[in-house]
Design a protein that fits this description.
Layout: H1 2-25, H2 41-60, H3 65-88, H4 97-119
Helix pairs in contact: 1-2, 1-4, 2-3, 3-4
């Protein structure tokens, strides 16, 4: 069973690194996800990208994997309201209503996976 959790840990790490890199490759895509009341949208987009990449890399290092899983858990909880808002928005930031509806359960899966990895001490 430990092998399955190692595979899931690696997959989550690769997903986080990929998702974080997208903040630099397509930063304008993320503009719609940052609420208008926040200033320095570009800084928020790049900083969250750096954080996602760093947490993904740390998740690959067994010594830091549990702490990285905790960080990912917290980050996904912080992003959850954005994805809930997106489902009910007339113009979802993710691009379409079906995409927003699909993305929300994925967010819950990421939260649960990060939680379980932290509890298993990754």
């Amino acid at each position: 069973m430990k092998h399955i959790w190692n595979i899931l840990r690696i997959l989550l790490a690769l997903f986080m690194i990929y998702a974080g890199s997208q903040h630099f490759i397509k930063p304008t895509f993320f503009n719609a996800f940052v609420p208008d009341f926040l200033i320095y949208k570009s800084l928020i987009i790049y900083a969250s990208g750096v954080l996602e990449i760093a947490l993904g890399i740390l998740l690959l290092i067994p010594k830091y994997a549990s702490k990285a899983a905790t960080g990912i858990f917290i980050l996904m909880i912080l992003f959850l309201p954005i994805h809930i808002w997106d489902v009910f928005s007339e113009t979802p930031a993710i691009g379409s209503h079906p995409a927003a509806v699909i993305r929300l359960p994925i967010q819950f899966v990421l939260i649960a996976l990060a939680y379980k990895l932290e509890k298993n001490k990754a």
